[in-house]
Amino acid sequence: MLRARWIERTLTPRFKLGTSKGPINARTVWYLIAWDSARPEVQGIGEAALFPGHSKEYPADVKVKLIELCERTDNWGQRLISDLVDVPSVRFAVEQCLRDLEAGGTKTLFPSEFTIGRKAIPINGLVWMGDKATMKQRIREQIDGGYTTVKMKIGAIGIEDELDLLRAVRKEFSADTLILRVDANGAFSAQQAPEILKRLADLHVHSIEQPVAAGLYEVMADLCASAPIPIALDEDLIGLNTHDSKVDLLENVKPQFIVIKPSLVGGWAATQEWIDLAKARNAGWWITSALESSIGLNAIAQYTATLNVTMAQGLGTGKVYADNIPSPLRAERGFLKYRPEEAWDLSAIVD
Question: Is 261 a catalytic residue?
Answer without folding.
Answer: yes
